[in-house]
Amino acid sequence: MTDRTDKSPCAPDASSPPHVGRSVTRVDAEDKVRGTARYVDDLTFPNMLHAALVFPGVAHAHLKGVDPSPALAIPGVHAVAVAADIPGENQIGCVDKDQPLMPEDRIRYTGDAVAVVVADTPTLAREAALAVRVDTAELPAVFDAEEAMRPDAPSVHDGGNTFLHFRVRKGDIAKGFEEADTVVERVFHTYHQEHSYLEPLGTIAVPEEGGSITIYGTMQCPYYVQKAVATVLGLPLSRVRVRQTVTGGGFGGKEDAPNEICACAALAAWKTGRPVKLIHTREEDFYRSSKRHPMSVSFKLGAKANGRFTAVEIRVVADAGAYSTLSPVVIFRAAAHATGPYEIPNVKTDAYGVYTNRQTTGAFRGFGQPQTIFANESVVDEMAERLGIDPVELRLKNCLAVGKRTATGQLLTESVGLPETIEKARDVSDWEKKRVSYAGDNGRIRRGIGIGSIYYGVSLGAKGLLLDASGAHLNVYRDGSVRIAVGGTEMGQGLLTVLCQIAADSLGAPIESIHVDHVDTSVVPDSGPSVASRTTLMSGNAVIDAATKLKATMGKVAADMLGASPDAIEFRGGFVRGGGGSVTFADVANECWLRNVNTAAEGWYAAPESTFDENGQGNAYAVYSYATHVAEVEVDTESGEIRLIRVTAAHDVGRILNPVTLEGQIEGGVLQCAGMGLYERMKTSSGDITTPDFSTYIIPTAMDVPEIESVFIEARYSKGPFGAKGIGETPAMPGAVAIANAVTHATGIRFYELPVTAEAVRLALSERRDQ
Amino acid sequence: MYEPVWRHPKSLDEAVKAIGDAGESGRLIAGGTDLAVLIRKGVSRPDVLVDLSGVCGHAGVTVADGRIALGALATHAEIGAHPVVRERAGLLARACSAVGSAQTRSRGTVGGNVANASPAADSVAALAALDGDVHVLSVRGDRVVPLAGFFKGPGATVLARDELITGISFDLPGSDARSYYRKVGQRNALAIAIVSIGATFDPETGTVRLAFGSVAPTVVRARAAEALFASEWGTSGNRPALVGAVARLAAEAASPIDDVRATAEYRMMLVETLAASSLKEMCLGTCA
Ligand SMILES: Cc1cc2nc3c(=O)[nH]c(=O)nc-3n(C[C@H](O)[C@H](O)[C@H](O)COP(=O)(O)OP(=O)(O)OC[C@H]3O[C@@H](n4cnc5c(N)ncnc54)[C@H](O)[C@@H]3O)c2cc1C
Questions:
Q1: Chain A closest CA to B280's CA: distance in Å?
Q2: Which residue among B7, B29, B134 has the greatest number of ligand 1 atoms within 8 angstroms of its CB, and so is best to mutate?
């Protein structure tokens, strides 16, 4: 942690907004520190029962029958809900309709559940779940995406396993490679990564009078859950109310996965007529929640001797698991960004999504990009080595900037802080000196320094337009206090705090008077998902829209009170000024109440249009965020052990809204990069997970945290709230490859799969010794 | 539903009686850091749990008569912080300090670590290199089992159902004795050993002891390598070469397997490398 105020290139002054840009304390800090924050498992309802799921535990099989009678015979067991109990449609696929809530005739992976057992206690429900008799006949299964693409592979769904293909075509790669003086071509592999949020998936479904149902739960996307529950129960959306509870982390793992668990609990509640709680154990969460897509990425890059990139050819194969879930959106993003943040005249990218009998894969912080970033940023480094150009120089030579075009042909017109992130990361990390001095290490411990740069299209882009709008509801009470509801979720990232700052400054109200609620779908219209670094941007703009409307109505009353013209009224810092006089914000609110003037308003913000044609050309996303990480490592050449010692993380965020929450986002992301780069790999054997808990699935702990230096760059975005753009995902993206590049710098060995483990390093070192 | 019967003996006599009475499905529980995990997983479901935590006179570290005695209930935190252990048996202090996290070290006991019989147990690799003795008690009386003969395989020991460990003891190493402990794990904390090594060197007698964890069904000693060292150290004209030969021979004591943490191939490399490092550091005074 370093001094924050001087890190902002635009330090606050008298003309700056009073709250935006400052380290306002998190509004949820006290509850979380005291332990009074109420997560879903802390809630209870009268007559509540507990549910557990029945997992046959086979990867691919005909489901011949489910016999709940042995479970029902156990005292304290109230019901067993199966597919036949579903009153609506047995379907929860979020993009493609390929996923039943509970399979009726075919099991496609070990996370498929075939029944929900409802009992007096969670322990009893789990024991009874083991008593349910499931009759299956195993089918040949496929556990590798490349194998699944072959015509003779077992089909996970009828009609072949390759269900997605995105292409990007720009220029002429044959010509581009001809122009190249050097070509580097490599294949890279990454594997399943688990989100490892602190709070596992959980929900309570409460049947209400009048045939409605309320769902409480830990989630990122309440409107997805509303839709899934309405579909499964056959109810109109108006009868399904979803209330997000305090959420202990998501990272994409609570984007669509809550649909399944919430719909299961809803079905159980519907069948029993009683509130039903369903909370996953960590192991169940490993089996049932989505993962980061394993990808194999073939990457071929051509460059002139002067370093200019001339052409790139990329083939991405992503293991989607048993159902498509969010793969269509994730793999679109991977395809659109696969070249890395460079202007390259000739591009050919093909990205495939493939079914296998493995865990479903979907959203995970970075959304399909960290895997392709590993490929492109490794190849850029190898190219630098071949050309004898410093990796930083080579990146600066080719990187995107205002006036350049992306792989999809999009002309960048504003808010491109990428070159600055590279320069700042270089300078703050002391790159030039260390690159030379570390290379001189010749003892047992070798140091290395490596870099990775990225760009990230903020929000959903061309493949998510239907969802790309958000609402806000602002209510000013007669005492001047303000209650805000939005459709975007707080999941630990600090949204509620930042929205209070935005609301206070756009309304001119005192920040203490503002309260923001967790999402309730009955209050704010469908605002899409809280993903893709879109929430501050979208909900923030919706709040500003509502505040602008409120100031117009309240401003008229204030003008009347002050004897001033409505045009001259200014709302700022809790006061309303005009015509030389001033009244408090609360005075105006009260006066409105006395005069029967409405002081509630709805805000709305819809994303600008984006496009992506069948050749992958178009303005894929409205705006991009940029980042560069520089990682420094120490490699023990005896054991292969790697210590991540320092990370310099430079981020272009458009505008800093809250330096402390921003730094929190970056530090957490750096750790997730360390996880992907050095430790995390969910291992499986015949579709079964062999690392289903935190003693075998290795994530970094507090003892593995490096020194982290966050550097902020503010390349304002004209359509962002106060100029801000997304920061949610970018911190988790450039670090893994920066670490891999640093290990290469330390050892002289390049790695083509992540994580780079001590074992991989040691084996590679001894292979080299043998040669 | 699983609801075990709990017994809370206050003395060793009550404890051995309680575990004797419990029969086949009784289990001792000390810190619970191994057993509670197994119970939650459903791997172990003892009907009776005999809680040792209230048994007095059974904890702590004592130094007397040229021996160091660890009570079975001594925690990893206590042992790791004990001044005499740190000074004379540094490998044990380091091993105990390398267990899990601060929470695990404050609850987990050395008796539990030994009784649990994991080949990866950190304190065991150190105690094996210290030639420790395990003190065992039952209603039938007490006995002393050398650590070297205590383990039968992963999770299996020579203890009878009704026996408990009262402590572990070993000779107080001389003031000029050297020792070495190192664990290679998957991260800096909460890491189960991929390979661990505990080693001692007595310059007076010119002998070393080398013990490895996680490379065989039990913690193993590299006896042949130790013997080679003992026979040649005093007369060797080329000690660095001897050290290399001893390390190579030491690796033959290992018979590792592939598991979720690492491959056998990597483990074999580590065994030789770590043996060589330990010998260089202890005997030649050089750090690689
Ligand atoms: C998060 C975590 C991390 C861990 N990390 C490590 C690590 O890095 N290295 C390591 O070596 N271990 C580690 N462990 C395992 C465990 O902490 C140690 O093995 C610990 O020493 C066990 O002691 P305990 O008192 O908790 O044993 P318990 O769980 O109480 O008992 C373990 C076994 O020993 C038996 N037992 C206990 N006391 C006696 C006795 N006096 N006589 C006879 N039998 C007895 C019990 O019946 C049981 O079978 C870890 C455990 C956890 C939960």
A1: 13
A2: B29
